[in-house]
Design goal:
Blueprint (H helix, E strand, L loop, with lengths): L1 E6 L4 H11 L4 E7 L11 E2 L11 E4 L6 H11 L3 E3 L6 H10 L4 E4 L5 H16 L6 E8 L9 H13 L5 E3 L13 E8 L5 E9 L2 E9 L3 H14 L5 E3 L1 H7 L1
Parallel strand pairs: 1-2, 1-4, 2-3, 4-5, 5-6, 6-12, 7-9, 8-9
Antiparallel strand pairs: 7-10, 10-11
Length: about 250
């Protein structure tokens, strides 16, 4: 049994993860962290991680970058591993995460979906064959009309997976509207679509002469990210120090 502290428990992802864990005999949320009051999620809720006095095997954070320092300090002090699912960290905060990983166990990934992280591995294998033979590579991502950033962090992570396999030889191109020239072989296009309630769609296209191979991933609900976060928490149980990502979770399965 993996005992979890859910940071950001009253938010959409926090409630989703609470529902997932209720049906998981191998996990239990023993406490939540959130500023919201009056919520009954079946476990005690604290306004700050520093107020939490309940023992746990791991923390899952889907909240805000503002509380990163408190989370890292608690994780180091209490020796509780932490799964960081929050986005929007600045460069200084990213550096703090890397430094903290020398003192506690931290898992951080651009996307918590097991499917997306499996796709990254497949893309690296495909790139070594197809991109090496001159196939053009394009990434197209689609999200709902409320998403603030573009391209998505996942689209960039997918592009990075291809680029790393090819010794980082590609230049990312986000907009061709001002370009009056043929496509360069060493460019990797990344396009963003925003509309409706699309949870998340990502296509990675390898376009060669007379054939096209497309790798696609579609998220139909946020539950795919919650399931990945719970798997990550189980993976971290018992680990004392180190920087991990979802690739480590997949490799351990």
């Amino acid at each position: 049994m993996t005992k979890i502290i859910m940071s950001g428990c009253c938010g959409a992802m926090g409630r989703t993860i609470s529902s997932i864990v209720q049906e998981d005999p191998e996990a239990e949320i023993v406490a939540g962290i959130d500023l919201a009051e009056g919520k009954d999620l079946g476990y005690p809720i604290f306004k700050s991680i520093q107020d939490c006095d309940i023992e746990a095997d791991a923390i899952i954070d889907f909240s805000t970058p503002k509380i990163l320092d408190d989370l890292l300090n608690y994780s180091i002090e209490k020796k509780v591993p932490i799964v960081l699912c929050t986005t929007g960290y600045d460069e200084g905060q990213l550096a703090k995460i890397e430094e903290a990983a020398k003192k506690t166990a931290i898992l951080k990934s651009a996307n918590m979906s097991l499917g997306i992280n499996t796709l990254m591995k497949l893309l690296q294998d495909a790139a070594k064959v197809l991109a090496a033979e001159g196939y053009d590579v394009e990434v197209v991502e689609k999200h709902h009309n409320q998403k603030l950033d573009a391209p998505s962090g996942t689209a960039l992570a997918l592009a990075d997976a291809v680029n790393e396999a090819m010794n980082n030889q590609y230049e990312y191109i986000y907009d061709r509207s001002q370009r009056r020239q043929k496509r360069d072989k060493k460019e990797l296009g990344i396009s963003a679509v925003r509309g409706g309630t699309i949870v998340g769609e990502h296509d990675v296209i390898f376009a060669g002469r007379d054939e096209v191979i497309t790798f696609s991933h579609t998220a139909y609900s946020k539950a795919v990210f919650g399931k990945g976060a719970v798997s990550a928490a189980k993976f971290l149980k018992g680990k004392e120090v180190g920087r991990f990502d979802m690739a480590d979770v997949i490799a351990a399965n």
